[in-house]
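This section describes the prediction task in plain terms. A model, or a person checking by hand, is given the sequence of a single protein chain and must write out its three-dimensional structure as a string of C-alpha cells. No templates, partner chains or ligands are provided. The sample shown here is typical of the held-out split.
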Amino acid sequence: MKSLTPAQLHKLEIRSVVKNYWMLNKSTVEAFDALATTYPLNHPTDRTVRNLYARYESGNIAIVDAPRQGRPAIADLTDQIKTILAAEPESSASYMAESTGHSEGTILQRLRDVMGYVFLKNRWVAHELSQEQKDNRVIYAGQLHEWLTFAKRNNYEFIITGDESWILYSYPNAGKWAPKGTLRYEHEKTTVATSKTMLTVMFSGKRFWLKDFLPHGITMNSHVFIDRILGPTMDAIDDEYPDIDTEVILRIDNSPVHNSKISKNYVKDTILHRVDNPAYSLDLAPSDFWLFGDLKRSMKGQRFQEQEQLENFVKGWLAGQSEAKLKSVFDEWRDRCYAVAFGDGSYIF
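The expected answer:
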C-alpha cells in the first residue's frame, strides 16, 4: 500500500474532526471554530467545512476518497477558473482547487499550460526619506539601541511595545492569475466600507500582555486607549509583578492618540517610561516589521463570516508564538536599531 504524504494525512485528520462534529449534531460554525483554534496556521475554510457537512448528509460518510478510474475529463475547468477569477481576481490556486473540487496541481497546470496565465504580484513602494528624517532616525535609533541593550539583560521582559492595526474579514491573495502580457494588477484600496476590526497587541520579549479587539461602533481615542489598552496592560503587569520596583520601558508610535496630553499624563503616573520613537520608522517597530505582517500573511486566502471566527484565528496564531520567537524578534529589533544608528538612516529591509 502506498504511504500517505503529510498533506494527505492532515486532510484525513481534518475530515475526521469535521465528521465527528457532524455526528454530534454540532453546527458548521462550531466545527470551523474548533479547527481554527486547533490548527491556526493550517485549517480549512468555512466553505470546506460546509461542503464536508453536505457530503456526509448525502450519505457519503467515508473520509477517504473513492479511487478514480483513469484520468477524468475536466473540459469545463477553464470556464470554472475564469468564473472564479472574474468574481475574485486575487483568488489563490488552493482556493480555486477547493472551489472546483480539483487538486491544486491540476489548477496550476491548467492556469499555466492551458490558459497561459502567470501570477502577478502587487507592487509596494516605501516612503522616500528626506535627509533630515534620516538624521533623526540615526539619533533615535541610537537611543532605542541603548534601551534594548539594557533590557536584554532580562531577556527583554521589561520593555513593552505594541500598536493597533485593522484586521480584515477577508484576505485575498497578493496578486492574481492572468494571461501573459497583462498589466500588473493595482490592488483596490481598503475603504471604510470594508469589513474589518481593529486589533491592538501589547507585548514584550517574553509574552503578550494584551490583545484587544475594538468593538464595532467605538472609535479609538485617548480615553479608549487608556481604558482598553494602557489600563489593562498596567493591570496585567501589576498582577504578574505585584512588588515591581523598576521602570518598564514603553515604545509606541507617534499617533495623535498616543501623543495626546491625556495619554502622556497617564503614562507619567505609572511605572512606564516611554521612549522617543523616530518618525517614518516602521522598520524599527516590531509590530510592523514582524507582528502584523506575519499575522496577515498567515491569513492569506482566509474569509471570515463572523467576528468570533476572526478573533479565534488571531488568538490561535498569537498563542503559537513562543517565548523564543519573541526574544528573536527583539534581538532583530536591536540589530535593526544598531544598523540605522551606525549607518546613514536609510530603511532596513
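For orientation: The domain at 131-173+184-341 is CATH 3.30.420.10 (Nucleotidyltransferase; domain 5).
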